Amino acid sequence: MTYSSLDQIYRSILLSKYFVKGWGKPDNLKRLFEFRKIISNRDLCYNLIPKDYPIVIDKDEVWSDYRVLEGHFRSPLDVQLPNIMPEEVKRAHFQIVLPTKWQEENYKPMCLHLAGTGDHYFWKRRNFMCKPLLREAGIGGMILESPFYGSRKPQDQVRSNLHNVSDIFVMGGCLMLESLVLFNWCEQQGLGPLGVTGLSMGGHMASLAATNWPKPMVLVPCLSWSTASGVFTQGVMSGAIPWDILKYQYFSDDVYREEIRKMVTIIDDDAFKAGKHFVQKYSDDTNDLTNLQPSPRIEGELFSPKKFVNNQDSNKSDPQEADKCPLMDQDDLSAEKTVDALAQSFAAMSSSIDEETDSKSGKEIRKEELDWALRKELQDSSSELDQVIGRKLPFSILGLKSSSVRDREAIQFMRGIMDECTHLKNFSVPVDTSLIIAICATEDGYVPRDGVTHLADVWPGAEVRYINTGHVGAYILHQAAFRRAIKDAFLRAKEKLCSS
Hints:
InterPro entries: AB_hydrolase_fold (IPR029058), ABHD18 (IPR019149). By secondary structure, the chain is of the alpha/beta class. The protein has a single domain (5-267, 407-499), classed as Rossmann fold (3-Layer(aba) Sandwich). Helices cover 46% and strands 11% of the residues. The chain contains 20 helices and 9 strands. The longest helix has 29 residues, at 330-358.
């Protein structure tokens, strides 16, 4: 899998660092891992939330063609695990966008939108997703503010930079339980069918939230995959992790190695089998690197990665779609201009890279690098570390020395705890996987998919569609594709509802 150069450049200009205070308190991690065993079981988790869980509606505003409710409730995770989260995180805030009049009396679709990294408050999801979906397809929207974001951000936290690794797990536990509260509220109001979606981190949180609803549910995870472990150990985000701090804590406190490490299970993901399959299939014919295609069993629309540079004009946003979107604030406009400038530089860079790779010498060089990496991986697979990790980690990206066993062990621990709390294999399978449409970027540098279980293998029947760009490019240019997938999934739900 090739990472988008735009993803790498965009991440490199950001100076923010995550987890600057380390792993989190050992006792908190142990409590979270024990609780994961409960919320990963649909029956146990669903029964934690009373159907009449108390919700407070603070505001009800009616506009010309839609209505906005705003409210709050106590996070159920604070009830289940007291004193594990900062005070600001304990109150969940939400908005609900409804039509002034439903198009059909027996069909009142509602979709929950969860936030991606850096998506604070409500306005982005309300204006880019909820209002267009309401206008185009009559789909109502729920917007849940993420823990550690917006009004739930701790006072000493800078922007979106979570202080501890454990904060990610608190966020996930909160969103899973808080989503159930909103789903139950919708059912009490006679609304449905229900769905959930999100971009990037929000896409993975949406996947987790859908696992515990005991009825068929629309799920559209965008720019996420079957686990979040690769985000922090392989992708471009790994460069934003203070590994020296994490390594120091890990080796200075025996609790991490002697107790917590034994509580987590790293998912094998069949990476070693994938390496053997690659060698068997391509050892005799690796001159043509275009053979490296995704498996043909993948359903949904598939774009050719080679076409991205040559077809950039076709990837530009539809002017009519742009007119439908509200104006951004000045900070977002500056970010947009920065990304546009990077995109232009990236186009020229990619063209020269493609020309070089398409030449015979470029193919030979690439083939030698791939063969060497695979031979090395297979030779090392007998060691305990590589059996657990299952693939060669990008120490050059992390800024670490590959010879350091201590470095590897800290990264191995990171992958272990991330797999424990985020790998979809550790959670219940959604009731109806045919209502799942996932959107992925072919060159996603933030969410690597190499050596990771395919989403359709974890959830048979799910559809996966691909957009020919990287993570940043997909987020900026393909909002319409995300909305189209949501509309398609709700149409499937409507057909099943009418046929039942």
